[in-house]
Amino acid sequence: MTARSRLDYTGNIDNQSTAREEQSMRTRTTALFVLAAGLALPAAAVSPPPAELAGVLKANNCTTCHLLSGRTVVGPAYSEIAARYADDKAAAVPVLAERVLKGSDAKIWGQAPMPPSAKINAAEAEAVVKWILGL
């Protein structure tokens, strides 16, 4: 008896079992290939901010805690913020702009609270939030 064929109780080769085993192996191989291909796909590209907003983000140390996308150490990535508020961007703008200006409670995104941004004005905060929500 080999792995490719089986003898049934009468001594005949059981090709049906062999075909089922081969199909099962093809299915498992295909599933593994699809899984591996999915893991290798790059994340969707996130556009960097316009120059004037990049200056605001840098001047206020926003990029110390937040990245455009991907894993961050302290705060959520801008793309995560955009995804969380995607259903109601208009209502989110004033709420998030206020959080940028006054800081936020640690319970919103994790363990560390976001400090207030003393050097940013209301118009800049709103512009930054609109850009983030547009990602």
Automatic annotation (TrEMBL):
Region (Disordered): 1-23
Keywords associated with the record: Heme, Iron, Metal-binding
Taxonomy, superkingdom: Bacteria
UniProt domain Cytochrome c: residue ranges: 48-135
Gene3D superfamilies: Cytochrome c-like domain (1.10.760.10)
GO molecular function: electron transfer activity; heme binding; metal ion binding
InterPro entries in the record: Cyt_c-like_dom, Cyt_c-like_dom_sf
Pfam families: Cytochrom_C
UniProt-recorded name of the protein: C-type cytochrome
Organism name: Pseudothauera nasutitermitis
